[in-house]
Amino acid sequence: QQQVKQSPQSLIVQKGGISIINCAYENTAFDYFPWYQQFPGKGPALLIAIRPDVSEKKEGRFTISFNKSAKQFSLHIMDSQPGDSATYFCAASKGNGETSGSRLTFGEGTQLTVNP
Amino acid sequence: NAGVTQTPKFQVLKTGQSMTLQCAQDMNHNSMYWYRQDPGMGLRLIYYSASEGTTDKGEVPNGYNVSRLNKREFSLRLESAAPSQTSVYFCASSSIAPTGELFFGEGSRLTVL
Questions:
Q1: Percentage of residues in chain B with pLDDT exceeding 90?
Q2: Which residue in B40, B43, B100 is closest to A97 by CB distance?
């Protein structure tokens, strides 16, 4: 079963707009929530991550908002640029130790297109 | 700095053929992973190796085998390929906490006819 559900599947925004991608999880034991960004023909790369002890984390134009009671977290991209066009994956795990990748559950992915 | 290197990048197989995907990392990471990526299904873990000499099944291990050859190299083998194994395969590695960030290769696109 899909423990992390991501929406929308695809998203088109205009340059300068706000892109919002949402994820919901089921397992209350999850305590690490990263977002990965993937450009065509490349592997995913870590973009930003949050732990549930904070409700928001911001890095430049990228912000994660976290709602523990609703078991939801979202990625906001402010002032979206054509260079942000990529596939975005949310993920969740129970910890980030040496085998964190073994515990990472990925969402289905969102293909973002930012029109110039 | 090469990071994670996968070979081959593209491969076409016939049903029943076998092949091995190779992966090497030069970041001295202990853990390595094989994922498959299919449209609308995200990234699913096939096998992982927490350290040299150990391997464990992930979410979708059926039809695959792995070998952790040494700390740098982790290979994925398809013994008898099936059309359902048509996918893009990613190798990744990670270091110890705190972030446990995964570093991915560029992927291997496999088509099974």
A1: 77
A2: B100
